Amino acid sequence: MLLRGIISNPLPSLHLKTPLRLRNFTATITNKYSISDEDLESRGFLLRRTFSDLNLNHLNSIFVAVGFPKRDPEKIKVALENTNSLLWVEHKKSQKPVAFARATGDNVFNAIIWDVVVDPSYQGIGLGKAVMERLVEELLEKGIVNIALYSEPRVLGFYRPLGFVADPDGIRGMVYSRKQRKKK
Ligand SMILES: CC(C)(COP(=O)(O)OP(=O)(O)OC[C@H]1O[C@@H](n2cnc3c(N)ncnc32)[C@H](O)[C@@H]1OP(=O)(O)O)[C@@H](O)C(=O)NCCC(=O)NCCS
User: Fold this and answer.
1) Which structural domain range is residue 99 located in?
2) How would DSSP label each residue in 94-163?
3) Residue 13 lies in a domain
4) Protein residue whose Cα sits closest to atom 10 of ligand 1
5) Which of the two residues, 17 and 49, has the higher pLDDT score?
6) Residue 58: inside a domain, yes or no?
7) From CA 157, how far away is CA 4, in angstroms rounded?
8) Quick one: average pLDDT of 69-74?
């Protein structure tokens, strides 16, 4: 089992998710982004890489709006403090977050990407891709080559063009399941 990592904040439908790992991605992504920082800014969006100005209640609202469970903001804060890389997009006018993604890991070999979300009102305009491209590049720049995430089946098509493959070389992800354990 080569998928190194555990689910720190599983979604309710965890059993439906497929583990994805990044493959041969460096050449694809380091050349250029699908949308430049300047273009994003001209469209009214700022890229942010720390959570000091991130309103956690607003972030929580996006989680809830996309169907993630609502979380204790204090716990979100702890999670973000223990996050190695994060990126969010601020809507300049409202100063609210509209897109977010983060990665945890050991900062050397392995990273797992979590909480990739775009506010439903801002989906479909390239923000999810913009955030993912930059997050992955940041990890690759650190020399991290084992980059994994868990994908809902309906989102596989979003991650694949970004370089992620499901079950690479037949490797399957496993997650701890309390339900499964109780059955024994
Ligand atoms: C999945 C999500 C992050 C995508 O963000 P987005 O900003 O709407 O996506 P983008 O506009 O950046 O789309 C980038 C590309 O992916 C494609 N795409 C977006 N969502 C897709 C999906 N669910 N399935 C297949 N392709 C998808 C777009 O058509 C676009 O293609 P193009 O580059 O050829 O034009 C966003 O829809 C979201 O927050 N969904 C709810 C939360 C969620 O499911 N997160 C993932 C948890 S596993």
Assistant:
1) 37-164
2) TTEEEEEEEEEE-SSSEEEEEEEEE-GGGTTSSHHHHHHHHHHHHHHHTT--EEEEEE-GGGHHHHGGGT
3) no
4) 126
5) 49
6) yes
7) 23
8) 94
**pLDDT (tens digit, 9 = 90+) per residue, 140-155?**
999 999 999 999 999 9
Residue with the smallest CA separation from ligand 1 atom 37 is 123
Instruction: Please count the structural domains in the chain.
Output: 1
Q: How far from the centroid of its chain's Cα atoms is residue 78's Cα? A: 17
Q: What is the CATH number for 52?
A: 3.40.630.30
171 is a domain residue: no
- Distance between Cα 181 and ligand 1 center (Å): 34
Q: Side by side, which strands form the sheet with 164-166? A: 45-48, 85-91, 96-105, 110-118, 146-151, 18-22, 164-166
How many angstroms separate the alpha carbon of residue 155 from the centre of ligand 1?
7
Q: How far apart are CA 177 and CA 180, in angstroms?
A: 5
Q: Which two tokens stand for residue 25?
A: 């991605």
Question: Which residue type, as a one-letter code, is found at position 106?
Answer: D
pTM score > 0.85 for this model?
Answer: yes
Query: 3-class DSSP state for residue 21?
Result: strand
Short-list 149, 82, 83, CA closest to 116: 149
Q: Are 22 and 148 in contact (CB under 8 A)?
A: yes
Ligand 1 pocket test: which of 20, 158, 162 has the largest number of ligand atoms within 8 Å of its C-beta? 158
